[in-house]
């Protein structure tokens, strides 16, 4: 059934759990995330990033409508979220696309500009009844850029600054930079748990972890225990998809019907989704 991101996040926050949010690019991603969540019997967030919209010729609606229909027919609650939005034009398409929430990303800007842009986005989003997430500090590795040094202080979220940022912008949730990096293909990232503890103590909004594909299982579990309420995963699905397709086409070089390799790709993604949900629950 179609759910609202704010409701799923609030439910998770109430029980000390985290909602997984998976980035979807194709219809096969959408189907795999829902199948994986159904097999685990867990609610899930489907998120479409601004980069995914760019890949879809700049159009949000075709994938958004497919995702909405799939969510409505799912046996578990599924919420739809627009991820890493920098464009005001795309931001304004959020409600018409059937999404209940958006992550507005001005984290590349200096503090004052990030705050001003985020506050304007939050005012607009709340007037539409949308839940809004923003980012302070910068989780590196976006848009194929080389990752920032995850240990550089500039790349981390400062707790006092974060407290002021949330109060002054009015956002509903905050993406924090605590050592994870986007687009990692190995599970080798190490989080700054001391910083997460200080952020959790300083803030009363749910905290969001980006770049979660790069975390070892124990780090993911510790992040949830430490106060992360929304866990964003993208690359892990692409890794599963691409590996499955490579393996299939190597074993079956004569294959022509795209359904053959998309079937194994979808199964591999669904397994990855169910596995990650299992890790989030195992506490
Ligand atoms: O917003 C999306 C996530 O941060 C995904 O990051 O692709 O490294 O898992 P990831
Ligand atoms: Zn992200």
Overall spatial form: globular
Chemical compounds bound to the protein? glyceraldehyde-3-phosphate, zinc ion
In the predicted model, the low-confidence regions spanning at least 5 consecutive residues are: none
Percent of residues in helices comes to 40-55%
Radius of gyration from the alpha-carbon trace, in angstroms:
18 Å
In whole angstroms, the N-to-C terminal distance is: 27 Å
Q: In CATH, what is the homologous superfamily?
A: Aldolase class I
Helices and strands, in order, run as EHEHEHHEHEHEHEHEHEHH
- What is the CATH topology? TIM Barrel
Number of strands: 9
Major sheet attributes? 8 strands, parallel, barrel
InterPro entries: Aldolase_TIM, Class_II_FBP_aldolase, FBA_II
Keywords: Metal-binding, Zinc
Cofactor: Zn(2+)
Protein name: Class II fructose-bisphosphate aldolase family protein
Give a short synopsis of this structure:
By secondary structure, the chain is α/β, with parallel strands linked by helices. It has one domain (2-281): Alpha-Beta Barrel (TIM Barrel).
Description:
The longest helix has 24 residues, at 258-281. Helix 9 crosses helix 11 (258-281). The mean pLDDT is 96. Strands 2-3-4-5-6-7-8-9 form an 8-stranded parallel β-barrel, surrounded by 9 helices. The radius of gyration is 18 Å and the shape is globular. Helix 5 links the parallel strand 4 (78-85) and strand 5 (101-104). It has helices at 5-15, 27-40, 50-55, 61-73, 88-91, 111-127, 159-169, 193-202, 217-225, 235-251, 258-281; strands at residues 2-3, 19-23, 44-49, 78-85, 101-104, 131-136, 173-176, 207-209, 228-233. It has a single domain, classed as TIM Barrel, CATH 3.20.20. It has 11 helices and 9 strands. The chain is an alpha/beta fold. The chain binds glyceraldehyde-3-phosphate and zinc ion. Glyceraldehyde-3-phosphate is lined by residues 23, 83-84, 182-184, 210-214, 232-236.
């Amino acid at each position: 059934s179609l759910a609202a991101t704010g409701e799923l996040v609030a439910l998770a926050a109430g029980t000390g759990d985290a909602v997984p949010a998976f980035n979807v690019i194709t219809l096969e991603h959408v189907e795999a995330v829902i199948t994986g969540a159904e097999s685990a019997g867990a609610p899930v967030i489907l998120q479409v990033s601004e980069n995914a919209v760019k890949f879809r010729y700049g159009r949000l609606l075709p994938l958004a409508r497919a995702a909405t229909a799939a969510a409505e027919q799912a046996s578990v609650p599924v919420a739809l979220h627009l991820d890493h939005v920098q464009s005001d034009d795309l931001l304004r398409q959020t409600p018409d696309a059937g999404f209940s929430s958006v992550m507005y990303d001005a984290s590349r800007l200096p503090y004052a500009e990030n705050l001003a842009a985020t506050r304007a986005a939050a005012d607009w989003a709340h007037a539409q009844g949308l839940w809004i997430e923003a980012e302070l500090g910068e989780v590196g590795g976006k848009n194929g850029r080389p990752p920032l040094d995850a240990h550089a202080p500039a790349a981390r979220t400062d707790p006092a600054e974060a407290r002021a940022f949330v109060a002054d912008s009015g956002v509903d949730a905050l993406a924090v930079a605590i050592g994870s990096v986007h687009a990692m293909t190995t599970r080798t990232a190490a989080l700054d748990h001391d910083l997460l503890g200080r952020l959790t103590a300083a803030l009363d909004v749910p905290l969001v972890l980006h770049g979660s594909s790069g975390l070892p299982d124990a780090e993911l579990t510790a992040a949830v225990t430490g106060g992360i309420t929304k866990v964003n995963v993208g690359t892990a699905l692409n890794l599963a998809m691409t590996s499955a397709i490579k393996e299939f086409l190597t074993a079956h070089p004569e294959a022509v019907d795209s359904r053959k390799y998309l079937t194994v790709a979808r199964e591999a993604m669904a397994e990855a989704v169910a596995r990650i949900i299992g890790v989030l629950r195992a506490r």
